[in-house]
């Protein structure tokens, strides 16, 4: 499974490698109610192959219509450089495109030709995202030249001296510990939220009866799994086993990393007991302070599905810098 950004960048890289030029649309500004955020992308070939989204479907239809009648190609051939299309500037257009009230979008449109340089740039972008490394796509608006920059940028899109810097984030990953009902619901919700999900449980009697399509499972020791694949800012570790032999083994490694989220399920009493045990595993007080336990937003959750909702709500909030 790929994130939407990774899927689009990979699509462009693949098409360029096969000598097929690609139209790439990127939202660079929004006003009012916008169906998609700044930085959202859509890619399309001249044959109508389309991946990604910049609206709920209305603008995509308008784009494809202009592609069919040649309007877009004519504009590019006249200017020979990227251009910006402004959607929703009038009430009539908002109604025609079914944009939310007051919504406006500025969409950067590029025609990316299958040159050796462009193939190299998008191959590098795709490779960086696949390796969970943040990277930026930099576009010179006057010439259309594109290059990759490994400097991180907090803003999704930045306009800088006739250049547009589009920050691309790798797919976020979640490691779930413990094959149980809560883990099943958490995994399903995480997949819907475009996380790459792995479940780890070294207890065969649990793992053998657990399966969620799209989730990799492993019986390996949790600390090894954390160390090898979940020790970066795009990783989260969630202990759900209710078994210290599984949960604590993962936490003793996870709390030493810069993972964006480390949490353990349990009551206040269980969490207090866990914090008393963790120093025995070589963790410092500062490292233990990074543990979120009990996990989940307080919504009076009782069932496994409700608990999973509270957990993924908290994970989402932390990912976006809230809480």
From TrEMBL:
Q: Where is the XdhC Rossmann domain?
A: 174-315
Q: Which residues form the XdhC- CoxI domain?
A: 17-69
Q: Name one Pfam family in it.
A: XdhC_CoxI
Matches recorded under InterPro entries: MoCofactor_Util/Proc, NAD(P)-bd_dom_sf, XdhC_CoxI, XdhC_Rossmann_dom
Q: Under what name is this protein listed? A: Xanthine dehydrogenase
Species annotation: OM182 bacterium MED-G28
């Amino acid at each position: 499974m790929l994130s939407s950004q990774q899927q689009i960048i990979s699509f462009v890289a693949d098409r360029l490698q096969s000598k097929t030029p690609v139209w790439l649309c990127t939202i660079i500004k929004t006003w009012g109610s916008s169906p998609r955020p700044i930085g959202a992308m859509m890619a399309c070939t001249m044959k109508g192959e389309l991946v990604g989204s910049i609206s709920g479907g209305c603008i995509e239809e308008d784009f494809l219509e202009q592609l069919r009648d040649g309007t877009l190609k004519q504009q590019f051939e006249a200017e020979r450089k990227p251009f910006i299309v402004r959607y929703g500037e009038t009430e009539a257009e908002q109604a025609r495109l079914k944009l939310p009230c007051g919504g406006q979008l500025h969409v950067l449109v590029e025609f990316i030709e299958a040159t050796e340089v462009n193939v190299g740039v998008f191959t590098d972008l795709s490779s960086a995202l696949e390796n969970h490394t943040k990277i930026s796509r930099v576009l010179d608006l006057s010439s259309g030249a594109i290059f990759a920059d490994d400097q991180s940028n907090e803003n999704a899109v930045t306009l800088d001296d006739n250049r547009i810097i589009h920050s691309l984030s790798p797919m976020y990953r979640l490691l779930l510990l413990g094959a149980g009902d809560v883990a099943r619901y958490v995994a399903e919700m995480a997949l819907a939220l475009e996380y790459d999900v792995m479940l780890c449980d070294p207890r065969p009697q649990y793992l053998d009866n657990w399966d969620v399509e799209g989730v990799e499972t492993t019986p390996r020791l949790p600390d090894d799994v954390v160390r090898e694949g979940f020790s970066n800012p795009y990783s989260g570790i969630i202990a759900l086993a209710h078994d210290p032999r599984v949960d604590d083994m993962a936490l003793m490694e996870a709390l030493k990393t810069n993972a964006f989220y480390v949490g353990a399920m349990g009551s206040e009493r269980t969490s207090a007991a866990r914090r008393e045990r963790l120093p025995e595993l070589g963790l410092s007080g500062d490292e233990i302070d990074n543990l979120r336990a009990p996990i989940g937003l307080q919504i009076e959750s009782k069932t496994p599905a409700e608990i999973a909702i509270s957990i993924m709500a908290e994970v989402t909030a932390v990912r976006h810098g809230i809480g």
